[in-house]
Amino acid sequence: MKYIRYSLVSTKLPLCNLCHNKHRCPNFFLDTSSFHPQNDITNLNKTLTNFGCSSKARGERLRIYPGALGTRAFAKPGRFYFEVDVYLYVHHHLREDQIFEIGMAQVDEIDKKFTACACRYAWMMCVRMCPVCNTLCLQTWHDGKLLRHKSLKTHIQTGMKHVSKFGFLVNMEAGELQVVDAVNRLQFYRFKNVDVTRPLWPILGVFNSGRVNVSLTLRTGSEIDITKLYFKD
Question: Cβ(54)–Cβ(48) under 8 Å?
Fold first, then answer.
């Protein structure tokens, strides 16, 4: 798929961004021209859901990957930050299934597989039912390898709701991606040796619509309080 109509985000470009301690919070949206047909994008192109399928996409749509990508890629040099609000509602018993994923990927990886967690040039955080913990787990993946997991909920039942917020700090200079708990300002995982030789695109995937409703809402630009842009390891 080609996305040359969108700009690359770089500190060399004149951007209407917020900047704090070398971190930029670029304003961008979800790409309504190519998201997967089983999903919907609402809320002024900021929210991706796995329910309420839409036919409004106009371009070459994702065929394999059940999600969407951002309208801007991040390129060297620079450090960029965005957040995603998560809402889950469990309406059927959950099995060992993927629920959602968020991360960064090179554009050629985005529609290769059903989950970007299995891709070589994608660095992903996901939530899924974990067979080890027997509950919802927060996990990080790269190239099909599970790097870390942590229980998100201790008890799962039908009718349960869950709300959280995650932050993603992309350091194109050091080749790192930090995943943080954006409510408590705690780092969950730091990807190192991220391949930044090519631009990286924000991607969001939502799954398992028969058992859980998922809404992922982008927070970018002026929606982020840059005075709180600090993280604890």
Answer: no
Q: Which domains does the chain have, with CATH numbers?
A: 35-228 (2.60.120.920)
Could you tell me how many residues make up the chain? Answer: 233
Q: Which two tokens stand for residue 56?
A: 């409004």
Distance between CA atoms of 7 and 26, rounded to whole angstroms? 11
> What is the Cα–Cα distance from 103 to 125, expressed in whole angstroms?
6
b/e per residue 96-132 (b: at least 16 CB within 10 A): eebbbbbbbbbbebbbeeebbbbbebbbbbbbbbbee
Residue 193, Cβ density class (10 Å: 0-12 exposed, 13-18 middle, ≥19 buried): exposed
Q: Note down pLDDT in tens along the chain; length 233 residues.
A: 433 333 344 333 223 334 445 778 999 999 998 888 888 999 999 999 998 665 555 557 888 999 999 999 999 889 999 999 999 998 888 877 889 999 999 999 899 999 999 999 999 999 998 878 888 899 999 999 999 999 887 677 888 899 999 999 999 999 999 999 998 888 999 999 999 999 999 999 999 878 899 999 999 999 997 766 665 54
Measured distance CA(55)–CA(228) in Å, rounded: 38
**Pair of tokens at residue 95:** 């099995």
Encoded tokens for 24: 């930029």
